[in-house]
Amino acid sequence: MKYDIFENLIRLLPNFYKAFWQTAVMLGISVPVSVIFGGALGLWLFTTGKNQIYANRHIHQILGFIINFMRAYPFVILMIMMEIPSRALVGTTFGPVAASVSLSVAGIFYFARLVEQNLAEVPKGVVEAALAMGAKPPTIMTKVLLNEARAGLVRSITILIIAILGLSAAAGLIGGGGIGDLGINYGHHRFMSDVMWTVVILLSIIVITMQEIGNYLADRLDKR
């Protein structure tokens, strides 16, 4: 009997739909949380740096250490450590919503460092000009720093989305599911190479699409 390469794909079509939804849930929760809180943390880190508007060496060093420590934390271990906080926040340690808690924590510290790097690229003369005109620190942060760095921030958000998509493959360890977990469970563990290649192609399409959208938006916002 001739092997039909589409047999597994057709049979597992409902699983693919479910996996897409689980991935969408994880990204839909963790990306906005990471951008909001990671952005605030990155802004705080930058503005407490040397010669910045809220310069404070001790706070800057503490923030830098925490961010570096959390970024170096293995994500699989982080998911295990976040079981109790996940239960407290969402009422469960199982599923895509619970996985989103760990993804958000990892994303916050990852994005914070990206934001710091984006803000560091803003010309100092722009900030000095704003200070000379009497602009207050909150105005400088929102109207100068974030505004001038907006193109870079869009690119960083794109990098964040792709990174979280990659991390979501490990969410299967706590029942998070997702496209990556589908490939591992069926493509690898059950030796369904057609499923594995389909998952690889789908993830590649998603990553390429997100990158192109991010590049397009960043180019439109880039004033240089």
TrEMBL record:
Q: Which domain of life is it from?
A: Bacteria
Tell me the InterPro entries matching this sequence.
AA_ABC_Transporter_Permease, MetI-like, MetI-like_sf
TM stretches of this protein: 20-47, 59-82, 88-112, 153-175, 195-218
Q: Which UniProt keywords apply?
A: Cell membrane, Membrane, Transmembrane, Transmembrane helix, Transport
Gene Ontology biological process terms in this record: D-methionine transmembrane transport
What the entry lists under PROSITE patterns is as follows: ABC_TM1
Name the membrane topology term. Multi-pass membrane protein
Keyword Repressor among UniProt keywords: no
**Compartments where located:** Cell membrane
Keyword hit for Cell wall biogenesis/degradation: no
Q: Hey, what's the signal peptide range on this chain?
A: none
Kindly give the Pfam families that the UniProt entry links to this protein: BPD_transp_1
GO CC annotations on file: plasma membrane
Location of the ABC transmembrane type-1 domain: 20-218
As for family, the record states: Belongs to the binding-protein-dependent transport system permease family.
What's the name of the protein?
ABC transmembrane type-1 domain-containing protein
